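Usage

Read records sequentially. Each one opens with the input sequence:
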Amino acid sequence: MTSKAIVVFSGGQDSTTCLVQALTQYDEVHAITFDYDQRHRQEIEIAQTLGEKLGVASHKVLNVSLLNELAISSLTRDNIPVSHTLMDNGLPNTFVPGRNILFLTLAGIYAYQIGAKAVITGVCETDFSGYPDCRNDFVKAMENALKQGMDYDLALITPLMWLDKAETWALADQYNALTLIKEETLTCYNGIIGSGCGTCPSCELRSRGLNTYLDNKAAILQRLADK
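and closes with the structure output:
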């Protein structure tokens, strides 16, 4: 039987690392990207370019702009600057409420339709921005809901859940994709490809992880191998 997986794919560091890995683990890998009128819309074009370059079986881009209408965030409103300061609820103003609930639900429906048994997402709670919908408990709850709601044996796979950013860079390097991810992905909240603006929270996290990895490469590769 052909093994199939769907990767929730934004064209950023994490999802591209997951895609590169998935292509070695499944017979067919399908990418799904969501257009929610996000602040850095270049990510959609970058995701399409990377999907074609890496050889995904198919790449679906879904318009979910209704999320933009409902969820107020600096990533859905151009007039709200990205800030390092936490909001009153303790979350970054880049948090888009309900985003991963919607994305994983739609990816699960797509998986059901094409007979894929795995949906892969690059969420992580080890070295992350503090989003509640990136936590393992949330993913497990969503997985259970999708299984129950569709009566379908679907797994939500999170390869990066327990990796810090340095280990994520190490994982990319293991698949000979370090340069690709460093130069051709878009993680920057200000929409600058590669190393990004260097000052937004996402760029700082990415850069800190890369520098840590490059300074301690052998040790981090070993740490990754031990996990």
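Summary fields computed downstream for this record:
- The mean pLDDT is 90.
- The first strand starts at residue 4 and ends at 8.
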